[in-house]
Amino acid sequence: MLPMLLKHLSNRLMKIVSSFLQNYEAWRINTFALFFACGLMLTLVISACSTNNASNSTATPTGNQTATNQGVVVRIGYQKAATILSAMKAQQDLEKAFAASGASVTWAEFPSGPPMLEAMNAGSIDFGYTGESPPIFAQAAGNPLVYVAYDPWSPKAEAILVPKNSSIQSLADLKGKRVAVAKGSNTNYLLVKALEKGGVDYKDIKPAFLQPPDARAAFEGNNVDAWAIWDPYLAAAQAATGARTLTDATGLAPNRGYYLAAKSFVDKYPDALKTVLEQVKKRSDWAKNNPTEVAKFLSPELGIDAGVLEVAEKRRDYDVLPLTDEVISAQQQIADTFYKIKLIPKSVNISEIVWKG
């Protein structure tokens, strides 16, 4: 009896153990499968997210460009008489262009090119526009600036004036006379070339280095005998005083304008510089095709009659162009002339500071 009972219990125990082992193996396999499936799914999700992020990064490079201008302050120097930058300031062209990138714009007004480039040398502004002579004086003084584009302007847009009743009838008659001119300005070169044409040594005149407002007062008060000046001050003086034009720059000086930038700005923020030039080009194209509108805009800014300003606008040209070998060569000739007559202390190489961007 007992042996049979033990055999029955033994068989029963074996079945229980066998059942447990079978169930344990199934549980173990199922558990492994579950963890494997979860791991595979997590891997796929992570991979998909990584691919999506990489795709977005590649598809939106402008976001990176925007980040490069974030917090940048673009400081513009301008003259009221410099049509394009004055119009851009009034219309907030640059503020609108930089809004999405997070950059901001500030403006500083100057009476002429030389003090503007002095401010650039001092680190107060990043970008500006002048006639052909100021950057030469600035380079000779060690100013780290860069030519970034040029504007054709016009030789008709600058001249040497004499009072309508003056005894001066020719360029040779300027010998010994007192001539008002903004030192280092575009008309400084016109004066040099005009004297050369008239056979007069630069040392044989009495230059009165005056900014346009002071020069106008001196001219009207007969405190100077002649005045080398550019538009629109030229057109305004002709209309108000009946002054005679002794000569304009035709055949004497190209009278180009130059867009200039601080070298540090060019090196650190080339994308911001390109945005500035793009907006300058758009406003320049508008000015070229709308001289009457430009005159109406400038009139209250300058306190000059719109009709007078329209005369000035119609005898000049507009554009924003990269410097060519021809333009660089002409600018070098001006620099060499200034060095020859000791207006600048050392010779300079224009091509060394021309932007290649």
UniProtKB/TrEMBL annotation:
Domain of life (superkingdom): Bacteria
Family annotation (InterPro entries): ABC_SsuA_sub-bd, Solute-binding_3/MltF_N, SsuA/THI5
A GO cellular component annotation in the UniProt record: periplasmic space
Keywords: Signal, Transport
Record-annotated Solute-binding protein family 3/N-terminal domain positions: 73-290
MF terms in GO: ATPase-coupled transmembrane transporter activity
Keyword Transcription in annotation: no
Subcellular location(s) of the protein: Periplasm
Record function comment: Part of a binding-protein-dependent transport system for aliphatic sulfonates. Putative binding protein.
Similarity annotation: Belongs to the bacterial solute-binding protein SsuA/TauA family.
Protein name stated in the entry: Putative aliphatic sulfonates-binding protein
Lineage, uppermost ranks: Bacteria, Bacillati, Cyanobacteriota, Cyanophyceae, Nostocales
